[in-house]
Amino acid sequence: FLDNTFLGRDNTNKRDEFSSRGKVHWSLSGDADIRLTAAYSNIDNGYDAFSLENNRRTRTDRPGTDAQEAITMGLSTNWTLYAGLQLETQISWSDVDEQYGFDEDWVFAGFCDGVTCNPLVEFNSTDLFERDREVFSADVRIKSNPARIDWVLGFYAQQRNEDLDRQHFGRFASTYETERYAGYGQVIVELNNHWAVTGGFRYEQFNDEYSDTNRLITKSKEGYWSGQLTAEYSFLDDVLIFGTLSRGVKPGGVNTDTSSNLPLVAATFRTFLTERQKFASETLFNKEIGIKASVYNHRLQMRLTAFHIDRYDAQLESFTFDPSTFIFTSFLDSKSDAENYGVELELDYFPNRDVNLFANIGYLETNVERMTVFDLDRLTFRPLVDRDQAKSPNWTYNIGANLKFNDRLHGRFEVEGRDSNFFGYYHDGKIEAYALAHASVSYTVGPITAQAWMRNIFGTNYAVHGLFFANDPRDAFTRNREYFQRGEPRVFGLNLSYRF
Length: 500
Fold this sequence. Notes:
This protein has helices spanning 256-261, 267-274; strands spanning 3-4, 17-29, 32-47, 57-58, 64-80, 86-103, 126-143, 149-167, 171-190, 195-212, 217-235, 239-250, 253-254, 278-279, 282-295, 300-322, 327-352, 355-375, 380-387, 395-404, 409-418, 421-422, 430-431, 434-445, 448-455, 463-469, 481-486, 491-498. It has two helices and 28 strands. It is globular and about 80 Å long. By secondary structure, it is mostly beta strands.
């Protein structure tokens, strides 16, 4: 979707992805069921997304990469025990190698030739992250026989090891290990023909240990609890009203980018970043009410939900940019509380058996109570108070139709869009609102299906990410500008599938 005019290539931001999956299912007897899955994926994408002119023509001499190779395996079993009890187990393992890197200066060596800009201010740099992550998890649960009182009890364990090797103004390496052990239970009680109550509880022990080449060594052991209470009332057989109170926890961790950059940034930033080498656990308290309905002989299906979420020690993605060293530092900042609330509507309408009209519409309000950011225009730290959260548009929607022309020929048309939204906390720049149209048509003959598709039919030029800093040597890196990563233009293709 981009052209690198310096290298004369159009594949520096390429997409090259391969994936495969296999499943085996055994039914040993009427009381036992075993499923084995294995998957392999190899992603070799390029990364060359930003340009000084904010267009789809780049001039990097060392374009980046966004690659991943992953192997995953899973084993699940289901055993019927005494009195109809069900014993379920799920065991999974994955090994993922990731490589992500980019050209920091966005131009080529020699771009400043004395006419374009002063060669004395030119810099040339790349940043490369290589991660190796291995995860093992096991989940064992016992479920009751379906009745007016249903229950489940379970135990979950996970071990995760991640090694990072970074090449950026020298080598940086880190090791991060986590262990999670949790016990949980849930009960669903049907009080009568109209009322049902669901209660759930989970307690987790979270242990982590981290070390890196900058001599940051840390370990922690924390216990978390979460729970849910839901009441449902059904009437007319097709309408359900519900309300939910729930509490959840996201464990804290280490900001490796902060630890990696700490020795390199100016003294102005060191105290601030030292306090953000780790981020705290985030606690979420959610309140939700809604209605589900299937009316007009099930031709209209609807779900309407209103929610309010309090986020304590919210993990907010933030950045600082040190203009004296040209170092961007990304981190999760958990120094503030936050708030989310809104409404979600899902509609499916079937005017006849050949047409399905659908709409998914969301409205969201967000707020950050108070956090500290570095203002690149003022070159000083300042408080950010009562502002919308980044990358949280007020409106999102997906509206369209599924069409059946005959038993073999099907079509789909949809429009998706979102409102404008802030792209960060360190600047009030916004990603503009956009709407995209997509369409597809498929034809099936026996086990073979051919599908022709087109995304972004009208070639809308839109942004998916933004940055704000001074990165142009033509003005000696003295002028801050907004830079945007563009979304895909009009693209089309053909899929062929064979069902065994």
